[in-house]
Design goal:
Layout lengths: L1 H10 L6 E2 L5 E4 L16 H6 L1 E3 L1 H13 L9 E3 L5 E5 L1 H9 L5 H12 L27 H10 L5 H14 L20
Parallel strand pairs: 1-3
Antiparallel strand pairs: 2-3, 2-5, 4-5
Helix pairs in contact: 1-3, 1-7, 3-4, 5-6
Length: 193
């Protein structure tokens, strides 16, 4: 299913309002969705993605909705903007995390997110995640090697859309796993600045 999601992200890459948005998945709610909060979100995915800004995990979450039809409109956290217009905002901890962890391990999600953001996202790990191989603190000198490799992978791409495309292509090429060391040149485990 991971390869299916990655291919779907690539297929819909140009349909999102923005890629690299600060947040996981956020946008305006089409007016006709306010009265359909208990309906499956898949039915409205084209309207949702057109109004949506995404990051790597946010785009994968929208592909999850598109492919698995297991999310209600109300699961997209509803808020109101400064004009009292309803918007949706999906954060890491909650439905996005719960659904994507059906497909990816927590380690994989942290690597994907760190590669996309080009910085350690270890502080977003759930409280019950086994972080016994991590140093305390999350400064660049204190992240696991696999996070440093993910960050270095992400830093190869200036544009967020290019970075997202490269991450998804890597997942496809590696049969559903994000393997940031699978590059033509040798990488070191220190973070490039």
């Amino acid at each position: 299913m991971a390869v299916t999601l990655a291919k779907d992200v690539l297929l819909h890459l140009d349909k999102y309002r923005t890629v690299g948005f600060s947040g996981y998945c956020s946008g305006d709610i089409p007016d006709d969705l306010n009265s359909k909060l208990n309906w499956n979100a898949q039915r409205f995915i084209a309207k949702i993605e057109k109004n949506c800004g995404v990051c790597a995990l946010g785009s994968m979450f929208l592909s999850y909705i598109r492919k698995l039809d297991d999310v209600k409109v109300k699961d997209l956290t509803l808020q109101y903007n400064h004009h009292s217009k309803p918007i949706f905002r999906v954060e890491r901890k909650g439905v996005l995390d719960f659904k994507l962890r059906e497909i990816f391990s927590e380690k994989q999600l942290l690597m994907i997110e760190s590669a996309f953001e080009r910085r350690s996202m270890c502080s977003n790990a759930p409280d019950n995640y086994d972080n016994s191989d991590w140093s305390k603190g999350f400064g660049y000198d204190r992240v696991p090697n696999y996070i440093a490799e993910a960050i270095n992978f992400g830093r190869e791409f200036v544009e967020a859309k290019d970075r997202l495309q490269a991450i998804m292509q890597n997942i496809i090429a590696n049969n559903g796993e994000f393997v940031p060391t699978n590059k033509s040149e040798n990488q070191t485990n220190s973070i490039k600045t």
